[in-house]
Each structure stands twice: as structure tokens, then as C-alpha cells.
Amino acid sequence: MNNHSRIRSIVVLLCLLAAPVVIAGDAASSLPARWADSLVSVPEVKLNDMDTEARDSVIVARKQLNALLEDDAAAPERLADAYGELGGLYQVYLVFPAADACYRNAIQLAPDEFRWLYYAAYLADDSGISELAASRYETARKLRPEYKALTVRLGNVRLDLNQLDAAQAAFEQVAETAGLEAASLYGLGQIALLQRDFDAAIDHFNRALVIEPEATRIHYPLARALRATQQKDAAKQHLALRGDQLPTIRDPQIESLQALKIGTRIHFLHAMKAAKKQDYAAAAEAFGLGLAREPDNVAARISYARSLYLSEDKPAARRELEAALARQADNALALFLHGVLMEEEGDTSAAASYYRRAIQQIPDHAGANYFLGNQYYRQGEYARAATHYAGSIRGEPGNQMVYMPYLGALLQSGASDARIMSAIETGMSVLPEHPGLQSLQIMLLASSSDPQTRNTEQAHKLAQQLAGQRALPQHQELLALTHAATGDFEKAAELQQQQVAAAIWFMPTEADRLTQVLSAYQKGTLPSREDLLNWSLFQPATFVGAGPFSHYPTPKPY
Q1: What is the torsion angle, in degrees rounded to the nearest 10, for the CA atoms of residue 447, residue 448, residue 454 and residue 455?
Q2: What span, in angstroms and rounded, lies between the C-alpha atoms of 82 and 65?
Q3: Can you give the pLDDT at residue 4?
Q4: How far is the C-alpha of 509 from the C-alpha of 443, rounded, in Å?
């Protein structure tokens, strides 16, 4: 961090900005009585130095804030959002005092909202007010300790404050986090340089440059460390390469903030806000406005297509997906969603083609593999279905919907019990309480013909645990099976008889299968696997195209 350049920026800013202007009837300036004791005034400032679009953005945001301030029914959370969003605009257009006042109000109204605390911390950091920045970063970190970019920024502030141990601890926490490595190593190098550990400094700086050679700011401290170790020629080389480019910090929150300064992006941000509220028509309208200015933004066009689909304009959604693919034919998300549209229209062959093209780009594409696996399952091609389900699981291990059809495909493809058990164990490592996985695990342990898989004692123990937790019919059936597997056919028949009696009344479609199992126990034998399994549980879910359009994750929405 360079505090001198920050101070210069602030001086220039204060020279440029006119004094605050209080406008009659402006609620943010003259707070209504309801808010006068808890919030601070945000006087208006002259916006003459802004371009038309920037000025209009601030004016619109301020009008929205004023309307909420004058609305006695407005929820504090909505008001906090309005203050925070106006503060963001002020911040990116360098109206720092107004931005800080907005953030203070947003934090007062929504103290548990990470964004406003983080933006306020970043504002203090960017203004060179390091103590305040550190305090705000620490408070924000309590809300989202997993947000690693904050840790780098906090490390930089601690370094500015000469709190070297705290700075080093922060940088070391994230030195191997993607997108933060070079910035962390640069920080560690500066600390080593201050501590006169020149060899360590050289190592940190060199590693940072390997990761991000464009970060020309690193060359100067590296040259200093090299000179201190008498490597004068190398020091001269790096001194000649010095520049002002700091290592980048991959920080989605701040990227979203900075995007406010780009006229087109404000439309995309409004679109995402509308989509979050499930106002898909408004989202589509905002995406359309942004794309009119930035037509080659493929990510935004895909989001536009999703909004159109969810606002019931599916033909337009298809046209936008095709336009996205015309610009970027290998975009896996566009290919997948286009396949979903094709399948919804009944053209499963065309859908499969799009799914395969998506998988060519991302072999473990969770959505395309899952939907293609479902197609193969329904066609009776169980081995191919299992292959794609496995790919879907690699792409998204936590998707509960894929495991049962995956196991059903394995069972019907003739896979070995060892392979099926391996698939179960993989699933249970992520979803340890998945009822289908638990049930099939017990069934295999109790009845497998593979001695490496069968373990009747463990099966009985697990079945007892399930039955003890909840006496569900399927748990009682498993308990009966494990009694039979351990040789107690009488007890097995007794429990199974209860299930048959209940099924006649409550599950008549299951009564025949349960009766077949009972007959086996009465004969002193284990039932066939076909009779043990309720195959309806292993079928793919009914196709619903809206699911991927509304919920499928996207790494970059615009």
C-alpha cells in the first residue's frame, strides 16, 4: 500500500469537490424525524465533474433512497441496501465523504450485512485511514471468515500499521489461495525485507513474479533485496523493470463495486438484483439494456436468456442462447441450457448433442452429464447412464438427486457389488445421512454374494441404528433382512409380516414385493435382489427444464 499516493488523491479530490449542498426536500440531507436520531445526514454534492451517465446513476439512486426514507413502512434492510448502493456509486466516483456517510447508515440499519462493512473498510483502506480500515475489516471478517480476499487486504493494512506479526499471519493464511498468491507473497516479501531477511524476501518476490509477471511494483523491492545481498547486476535488471502495477487481488466483492463505474455494468447489476428477487421480467429488461451497449458479453447474454425463459418468453430465450453460441461456440453453460430447451421441446436427440458438446468442453459438467445420464437410463442403456452419472458426481458431489439413479444404473448394468459399494461410500462421504445410500449399503452388506462386500454383523448394527432413530417401514424391512442374514429367519418373518400388513392398507403397490420377501424368510432363505429393491426409488427425476435455468450455478453472470 502507498499512503502518500492515497493522500495526494484525497487532496486532489477535496480540491475538485464543491462544498456539500443541502437541497430542500431531500430526505437524505434533512432526515425525517423517524431516522433523525439514528442516521447521519448525507448532504448532496455537485456532480459537475461526472459524465452524464454517472451523474444520472447517482441521481436515480438518491431518489430511490429518498423515497424509502419518506416511506414509514420501509423495512430497515431495504433502506440499508439503498444507502449501500448509493455509497458504492459515490465511492467509485471518488465522492468519499458522502460514500462514508452512506456506509455508516447502511451498517447502522443492517449490522450483519457483510457487503456494507466490507465496502466501508475498503473505503477507509483506499483513503489511507488504516486504523479504521483494520477495525472494519476485522468486524467484516467475523461475518464471513471464509472470504479470503479480505484477509489479504487486512494483511496490507496491518503492514501499513507496521504490525508485522499480524500482517505475516494474514498473508500466510491465503498464500496458496487461487487469485491471491502473488499479493500474499508480495506482502510476505515486504515483511522479510523490513526484517532484513533478504534471502526470504528474494524468494517471496521471485515466486510472486512467476505467478504474476505483470505486477511491476514487485521489481523495486526485489532490486533492494538483491542489492543487499551484493547481487548488483540482478538488482539493476529489476530496477529497470520497476513500475506501478501491484499484484492483483481476486476479489468478487470489490469487482462488483468497481463495475458500478462502467456504465453498462450498472444495468447488469440491476438485473442481478431483480433476479435475486425473482422479478425475472425486470431482470430481462435490465440485461437487455446492458447488452445494447455491450453486445459481445456472452456471460450476460446467457443470463439474459435465463431471465427470458423464467419470465415465460422461451422463444426469445432460445434466440439469445443461439446468439451466445454464435459468439462463443464452446461455452459449456450455453450449450447445456440450449440442450435443456431442446429436451423440453421434445427433441431429445438434439438435446443429447448439446449435452455432449458441453461435456467436451467440461468433462465433469454436472448438469450435462446428469441430464444425458437420465436420457440413457430411460432408454435402458444403463452402463452409459452410469458413466455420465459418475461424471455429474465428480462435477457436483453434493447433488443428492444423482445418486439413486446412478446406483440404479449400476445395479441394472451388472456392475459388481464391490463397485456399487464404492459408489455408495463415495456418496456417503459427502451425504452421510442420505437415506437411499444408507439403505442400499445395508442391503449389500447383508445379502451380497461377494465375500469382500458382505458383512452381516455390520449390516445388522447399521439397521438397528436406523430403526432406533425412526421406525419407518423401510427401516423395519432392512432390520428384517439383517435378522435373516444373521440366521434369525423367525424374527425376520415376524417383522416382515408387519410390513406386509401395513402395505395392504397404505402401500398396496408394494404389497406383492413385500409378500415375496416374507415367503423367502418363511422358507429360511434370503430373498432375491429383485424382490428386495423398490425400483421406483432408483428412477431419474421427472424432467423439469426450469430447474437448470433458475438454479444452475454460473461462474460469471455478466
Answers
A1: -10
A2: 5
A3: 38
A4: 21
**Residue 3 DSSP one-character state:** H
Contact call for residues 260 and 270 (beta carbons, < 8 A): no
Would you call 379 helix, strand, or coil by DSSP? coil
% residues pLDDT > 90 (the chain): 72
- Residue 34 CA to residue 261 CA, distance in Å, equals 32
Residues contacting residue 379 through CB under 8 Å, at least 6 positions apart = none
Q: Exposed, middle or buried by CB within 10 Å (0-12, 13-18, 19+), for 397?
A: middle
Would you tell me how many other CB atoms lie within 10 Å of the CB of residue 242?
Answer: 15
Listing DSSP states for 175-216 in one string gives TTSTTTHHHHHHHHHHHHHHTT-HHHHHHHHHHHHHH-TT-G
- The Cα 135–Cα 116 span in angstroms is 14
pTM of the predicted model over 0.85? no
CA gap 51, 481 in Å, rounded: 76
| Residue 248 DSSP class | P
**What residue has cell string 443429447?**
352
Do 443 and 534 touch, CB atoms closer than 8 A?
Answer: no
**SS (HEC) of 107-148:** HHHCCCCHHHHHHHHHHHHHCCCHHHHHHHHHHHHHHCCCCH
pLDDT at 539 over 80: yes
Whole-number mean pLDDT of the chain?
90
Q: Which three cell numbers stand for residue 73?
A: 413502512
pLDDT tier at 269, thresholds 50, 70, 90: confident
E strand or H helix that includes residue 442: helix 435-447
Q: Are 397 and 423 in contact (CB under 8 A)?
A: no
Q: Please compute the mean of the pLDDT values over residues 214-237 and round it to a whole number.
A: 94
408 in Cβ contact with 432 (< 8 Å): no
> Which triple of cell numbers denotes residue 184?
500474499
Choice among 42-46, 281-285, 300-304, 396-400 with the minimum mean pLDDT: 42-46
pLDDT of residue 263: 63
Range(s) for CATH 1.25.40.10 in the chain? Answer: 146-261
Q: How far is CA 199 from CA 190, 224, 230, in A?
A: 12, 11, 11
Q: Which amino acid is at 97?
A: P
- Alpha-carbon span 242 to 268, nearest angstrom: 37
- By residue count, the chain amounts to 558
Q: Which three cell numbers stand for residue 68?
A: 424509502
Q: What is the CATH number of domain 1-129?
A: 1.25.40
Tell me how far apart the alpha carbons of residues 352 and 362 are, in angstroms, rounded to a whole number.
15
Domain 146-261 class in CATH: mainly alpha
547: CB partners within 8 A, 6+ apart? none
Q: Taking residues 372-394, what's their average pLDDT?
A: 97
Report the DSSP beta bridge partners of residue 44. 21
Q: What is the mean pLDDT of residues 464-484?
A: 90
pLDDT tens sequence across 287-337: 998 898 889 999 999 999 999 999 999 999 999 999 999 999 999 999 999
Distance CA 365, CA 554 (A): 12
Helices (H), 260-313: 263-276, 280-293, 298-310
Classified as helix, coil or strand, 10 is helix
